[in-house]
Amino acid sequence: MAKNDEVYMSALEGKSIPILTLDNKWHQLFTQTEMTPEIEALADQLNALVERDGKIRTETKDIKKLKKKLLGEIVPLRDQATKSGDSPQIEKEIQDRTRLINECNERLDSHTDELLSLSKEIYDIDYKLMIETMKVCYERLHDNTDYIKAMDEWISKVRVELKKNVIRLQESEMENYNLYSYMHQIFGPEVIEIFDMKYDPDRRHPVRRPLAGNENEYVE
After folding, report:
1. pTM of the model
2. What is the structure's pLDDT at 172?
3. Are 13 and 89 in contact (CB under 8 A)?
4. C-alpha angle with apex 212: 206 to 214, nearest 5 degrees?
């Protein structure tokens, strides 16, 4: 069972949270486990917000460049107006640039407000995405741990039973080999030649001995 949100919030308190969908390591997590519908939806929301944020920042840079250009054009126009006296044409150009500068300021103010709002939205969605990611990964870790524990117990039991069966196998092989050898010694090869057609321990059941350091591999 996954930990609750309060536990995750406590763990994340004071931590810097990266924008997960921009982090390749976050994407690599989901080569190990499946992405839930909740995570997919949050990731889509986050990507849309990040895309909008990038667009606004680019527009802000362009507006600032335009404003700087317009301000630079007003200074020489005022100098011209001073030298030539009243000039309706020059005054109109100054007014046009002043109007454009005011529009730039308004757009910059609007962009500043939107960027602040986007920053909060991005953090909130990113935080929710991190919580969902931690839940999924924790549940997968928990399930895998239970499976690993069960398999480890099973392997331990099988290993013990395997060792017992290996001993029984070796004992039976040795018993057959000894029986056959004693029969040869007591009755002679001619007497038991008929049995050679039906049973030959060296051919059918050779005595196997474990290799040094490995009880699961044998040599004849």
Report:
1. 0.66
2. 86
3. no
4. 85
